[in-house]
């Protein structure tokens, strides 16, 4: 226990009773306690901590993802994912000779992007011309401990790369009431939207010039074969 000694003496008996008579460790300076906690947290995040340790972690309250053909919302970082995290997704072109891809980034729990929140957009251009489905782009989605989101899109086989960073623009930790409504609505319309999603999956909407669809990653294909 750290802090004001007079306060410690008042609450110490209650804590020791609550924890079945275990003696509270006191006399530790607040600066030392903060320093030790920071060191433990750094070791946890870097994966260097050996043994058991109970720490405080953030998890995502909402799903992060991108728009795919038909206006569908494709999840990349699901809700309740431990932060920090890094997720991968492969996408491909939907048109012959398509040389650009537009990535619209959303957060939410609904099946269609129109019902979720747009975070931003970026474009990957100068892709190699070819038939639809030939060019494959790897999407890497990273969320750090400060809730900063970064998305990188790289054409596999030595192509171009584009990067988008959300910076400090969105933090779900400050939207408690909106979050509750979003989760309630997602559950209310889940069955209806699953049917609609099946109808629209992979369909190209009018004006969807730079659209994309998801393709399985190599490890996903190998796992299904086992």
Automatic annotation (TrEMBL):
Keywords: ATP-binding, Nucleotide-binding
Superkingdom in the source lineage: Eukaryota
InterPro entries: HSP70_peptide-bd_sf, Hsp_70_fam
UniProt key word S-adenosyl-L-methionine: no
GO molecular function, one term: ATP-dependent protein folding chaperone
Organism placement in taxonomy: Eukaryota, Fungi, Dikarya, Ascomycota, Pezizomycotina
Residue ranges crossing the lipid bilayer per the database entry: none
One matching Pfam family: HSP70
Name of the molecule in the record: Uncharacterized protein
């Amino acid at each position: 226990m750290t802090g004001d000694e007079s306060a410690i003496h008042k609450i110490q008996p209650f804590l020791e009773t609550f924890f079945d008579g275990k003696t509270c460790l006191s006399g530790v300076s607040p600066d030392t306690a903060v320093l030790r906690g920071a060191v433990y947290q750094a070791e946890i995040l870097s994966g260097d901590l050996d043994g058991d340790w109970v720490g405080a972690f953030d998890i995502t309250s909402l799903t992060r993802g991108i728009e795919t053909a038909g206006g569908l919302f494709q999840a990349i970082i699901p809700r309740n994912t431990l932060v920090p995290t890094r997720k991968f997704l492969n996408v491909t072109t939907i048109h012959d000779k398509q040389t650009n891809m537009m990535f619209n980034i959303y957060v939410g729990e609904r099946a269609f992007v129109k019902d979720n929140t747009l975070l931003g957009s970026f474009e990957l251009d100068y892709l190699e011309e070819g038939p639809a489905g030939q060019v494959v782009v790897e999407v890497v989605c990273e969320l750090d401990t400060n809730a900063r989101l970064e998305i990188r899109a790289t054409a596999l086989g030595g192509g171009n790369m584009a990067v988008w960073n959300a910076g400090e623009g969105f933090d779900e930790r400050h939207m408690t009431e909106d979050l509750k409504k979003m989760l309630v609505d997602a559950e209310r319309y889940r069955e209806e939207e699953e049917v609609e999603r099946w109808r629209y999956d992979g369909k190209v909407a009018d004006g969807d010039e730079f659209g994309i669809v998801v393709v399985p990653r190599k490890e996903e294909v190998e796992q299904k074969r086992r």
